[in-house]
Write a structure and sequence with these properties.
globular, homodimer, alpha/beta, Rossmann fold, seven-stranded parallel beta sheet, 7 strands
């Protein structure tokens, strides 16, 4: 009985995700689902991304949080269109929550949609939102053991942004061990070292987005 | 239907928690459920706590993680009795998982049991494990907005250990705003500033444990 219900929840989620994906593919919108622990720097990374790319792409943002409009307010302060989803205690975004706010965007006039998930290194990885790509942010203060201790996130994401590398001199984070652990869990995953604060490494992340966008719009339908 | 099942899950959890609590109270064992985001420093804080208090109290530790024995190994390296629970993808410990490993401890010969929950600032707060006290660890690199953005954790914990204060000079964490936010969400909660690395503030945490232990053993049954 419990297994059946869990299956139903995921079946319903996957159906909603496929409807979302259908819309994103039809309108050639690149959709990136960004996940991490609380405070790994997702919003600050998105702020820097908007500053760098907003002149070139029309970018929308969905913000997921248990409570408050704080993250959407930060994104709106940069002039971007941002919609806040409050999960009221819920630990992840699901595809139906996302579907419910999609009409707030005009996807014929949107190139890229970033979905900033609830800060949680476990639950969000289990829910397909219909995105084009899943990206995990891991921050240096969390420690290099997190990839092996939270494998479900890193086996389901194709890119890891290792953020806050400006703090490496003050902490014992072993970058090589993190890269080794990632290879062991997901050989196809890529890791980019960045600092949203010092801006180091951000160009490589922006190039990744540009490549993903080009692949997205050139896709045959 | 969904509501009923959710109620059943919590009813079963609460029943297991009450059995756990009965055992802990009967044996006058102080049980502290420690929760936080991944990488906030729970294990390092427990290591320092063991080093400081193991001469005075008989301490056991339950470690919760999705995967690996890494945290239990760190605790065992200090000579303490530690049992690792692997949730295999699960986002929190529940009272039944804890009940299943309790026979690994002799509670007539244990003064304090620390339960280090899965690193997750959302889900663990919803599950009573039968503990005497719930403690949240928040670390400076996560940012001072986390208390208002993850209210379910902070409204259900009675003590916040603000960890990694040695990093305050390098980051923009507003301690006063964190304290204000905490007051607004949970007026009874206390905040202690600590650094497991520089050891600043740890004495206040140890005093809190000693006070809690005295209250625990002096309780009438």
């Amino acid at each position: 009985m419990k297994v059946t219900l869990q299956t139903d929840v995921l079946t319903n989620n996957n159906r909603a995700a496929s409807y979302n994906r259908e819309l994103f593919e039809k309108t050639k919108t690149l959709v990136v689902n960004v996940m991490s622990s609380p405070g790994a720097g997702k919003t600050t990374l998105l702020e820097e991304t908007l500053i760098a790319l907003a002149g070139k792409y029309r970018i929308g943002v969905i913000e997921g949080d248990l409570a408050t409009q704080k993250d959407a307010d930060r994104i709106r302060a940069l002039g971007a269109h941002a919609i806040q989803i409050n999960t009221h205690g819920g630990c992840h975004l699901d595809a139906r929550m996302v579907a419910a706010v999609l009409p707030e965007f005009d996807f014929d006039e949107t190139d890229i949609l970033f979905i900033e998930n609830v800060g949680n290194l476990v639950c969000p990885s289990g829910y397909d939102l219909g995105q084009s790509h899943k990206v995990a942010v891991l921050s240096v203060p969390e420690g290099n053991d997190k990839i092996s201790k939270y494998p479900t996130m890193f086996m389901r994401t194709e890119l890891v942004l290792l953020n806050k590398i400006d703090l490496l001199p003050y902490l014992d984070f072993d970058v090589n061990m993190a890269i080794e652990d990632l290879k062991g869990i997901n050989a196809d995953s890529k890791l980019i070292k960045v600092s949203a604060r010092s801006k180091e490494g951000l160009d490589e992340w922006f190039s990744w987005i540009e490549g993903a966008y080009k692949a997205c719009v050139s896709q045959e339908r």
